[in-house]
Amino acid sequence: MLVVDNVHAGYGASEVLVGISLEVRKATVVALIGANGAGKTTTMRTISGNVKPTQGRVLLDGKPVQGLDASRIARLGLSHSPEGRKVFGPLSVEDNLLLGAYSRLPAFFGFRRQAERELAHVYQLFPRLRERRSQAAGTLSGGEQQMLAIGRALMANPKVMLLDEPSMGLAPVIVQEVFNTIRRLKEEGITLLLVEQFAKSALEVADYAYVIEHGRIALEGTPADLHKDERVLAAYLG
Fold first, then answer.
1. Beta-sheet pairing, 216-221 with 208-213
2. Disulfide-capable partner of 8 in 55, 88, 171, 226 (CB 3.0 to 4.6 Å)?
3. What domain count does the chain have?
4. How far apart are CA 188 and CA 185, in angstroms?
5. How far is CA 98 from the centre of its chain?
6. What is the layout of strands, in order, in the sheet containing 208-213?
7. Residue pLDDT, tens place only, 94-133
8. Cα(101)–Cα(153) distance, rounded to whole angstroms?
9. Residues of the chain by 3-state class (helix, strand, coil), percent to 5
10. What's the pTM?
11. CB-based contacts of 173, cutoff 8 Å, min separation 6
């Protein structure tokens, strides 16, 4: 469903990714773990088109998308819930959600009506968002904003969803709630690439995982395999 093949990318003269390769198969959750600065977020931004690769391929459902604008990649079926949530603070919760569906719905007539099914799905996952649908997104708690960011990405009904650091800055009880949501998405067959600072939690929900170090994939395997690796145990699970 998603293939990243020997991708190099960075910012200006600074190369962050130096030949990264990974695969996310349909209806699986794949975790990408690593230390701060290892290249996790740059990987996500390169896949979604916010950073242009200098070398390599990104295939979405078998089609090359490397170098395309982020808006075009979104229309092809990839949605990205970014690090830091990035909700539109002055807009209502529901308007934020509707913006997530812009890539596949008509620009004018029928937009709101055709988004009803996705809205119902998001509100079923996150009842608090329904309660606050008219509230400005910027007034939500951090946990509620993370729910909104995930919900907004789901509104696109994506083929593949990127979820970058969903637990960042959240209280432990809210982190648990976020991971319960990821489990529900997995049960629904959502294809998901997850970047997460809490490696243990990420491996608990993942079908497969990659460890990135200095812009390269250092290790890969099933969560059971990685739990047996002394380097993973020492660096991420100790």
1. antiparallel
2. 55
3. 1
4. 5
5. 18
6. 78-81, 160-164, 192-195, 29-33, 208-213, 216-221
7. 999 988 887 665 555 556 667 788 899 999 999 999 999 9
8. 8
9. 40, 25, 35
10. 0.90
11. none
Q: Report the sign of the C-alpha dihedral through residues 77, 81, 83, 85, in that order.
A: positive
What phi and psi values does residue 221 have, to the nearest 5 degrees? 160, 180
Whole domain around residue 99: which residue ranges?
A: 2-235
Q: Spell out the SS3 assignment of 87-113.
A: CCCCCEHHHHHHHCCCCCCCCCCCHHH
> How deeply is 15 buried, as exposed, middle or buried, from its count of CB atoms within 10 A (0-12, 13-18, 19+)?
middle
Which phi and psi angles does 126 have, rounded to 5°? -130, 80
Contacts (Cβ under 8 Å, ≥6 apart) of 136: 89, 90, 91, 92
- Read off the pLDDT of residues 156-186 as tens digits, 9 standing for 90 and up: 889 999 999 998 888 888 888 889 989 999 9
Q: What CATH number did the domain enclosing 71 receive?
A: 3.40.50.300
